[in-house]
Amino acid sequence: MASSRDRQRKLARAKLDRQMARRAVQERRKRRLLAGVGAGVAVLLIVAGVAWIGGAFDSDEPSTDAADQDICLWTPQNASTNSNLKDVGTPPTKDIPTLGTQTMTVTTSQGAPIVVGLDSELAPCGTADITYLASKKFYDNTDCHEITSYGALRCGDPSGTGLGGPTYSIYNENVPTAPEPSASPAPDAGAKTPLYPKGTVALIGDPPGTNGSQFLIFFKDYSPPTPEYSIVGKVTGGQATLDKIAKIPTSNNDAGEKVRPTQKITIKTLTVGDAPASAAPSASTQS
After folding, report:
1. For 4-28, how does the pLDDT look when each residue is reduced to its tens digit (9 = 90+)?
2. Beta carbons of 113 and 266 less than 8 angstroms apart
3. pTM of the entire structure?
4. Residues in contact with 25: Cβ distance below 8 Å, sequence separation at least 6, in sequence order
5. Beta strand pairing status for 152-155 and 85-86?
6. I need a surface site. Which of 48, 88, 120, 183 has the fewest CB within 10 A?
7. Which residue in 229, 185, 173 sits closest to 206, CA to CA?
8. Which among 117, 115, 114 has a CA at the least distance from the CA of 102?
9. What region does 74 belong to: left with phi over 0, alpha with psi -120 to 50, or beta?
């Protein structure tokens, strides 16, 4: 007959087994519950992902259209540190044409107007710059103050110092690339297209890349080792006037450079308008 101590041990063991069984059941229930919650969360995430891809969480507000984005950025220039600058406001940054050609007409004291096709595709900001200043009559009754040694007429500075312009600047955007030097000269090296062909119109800034109102009209081909002028257009009419200007003698300016015209080259008016149907070829960079 089993002793009372043995019965107590058996009862205690049975109780422990029942407790362990209940704990096991509870653990299984907990695992099933967590698994269900995890699966539910996963389903929700999948549904949310599909909805996101489908645009369910897109804002009702219209997205920013490309036409609403800034095309040109204008850098302020301090007139208090450069008294040669003239404040005529700042051009808009949006709604700037990026295709086609605009016609610039420069009427000078030297003959028939010089007509230029401004390239709105390759130089949209340069074209917008000149167009804006022309609308403010910035160029009217100003003198072209230099005939450069490399064959270009320099205009667009009301102060005639080379330091004048508006109270903003625009970066370069259409500077030609100089060809890589060749180990041996090519047979047709002399026939290469110049970087700035005769008739090219380019912006000029001081320092380079801070373009304002000043521009160059080339009456000779020019290929510098390091191009720095942003091409904005090409002469399409009035070449005879430009050739006449090219023959004007020069004298020394205040810096001792022989670039000052001995005859006045005054811009009476400079206007910009839409190009006619027979628009001139667009200006392009050379490679």
Report:
1. 445 555 555 555 555 565 566 556 5
2. no
3. 0.72
4. none
5. unpaired
6. 183
7. 229
8. 117
9. beta
